[in-house]
Amino acid sequence: MSSQDIPEENLPEAQGDGHGSVEPTKDNPFADPGLPPHEHRIQDIDERAAKRSERVVAMLFTVSMLATIGFIASYVTIDAHKSVYIFPLGHISALNFALGTTLGVALFCIGAGAVHWARTLMSDVEIASERHPIEAEPEVKAQVLADFADGARESQFGRRKLIRNTMFGALALVPLSGVVLLRDLGPLPEKKLRTTAWKKGLKLVNMNTNEPLRASDIAVGSLTFAKPEGLEEHDEDFQKEIAKAALMLVRIQPDNIKDKQELEWSHEGVVAYSKICTHVGCPISLYEQQTHHVLCPCHQSTFDLSDGARVIFGPAGHALPQLHIAADAEGYLVAQGDFAEPVGPAFWERG
Question: Which residues form the Rieske domain (predicted)?
Answer without folding.
Answer: 244-334
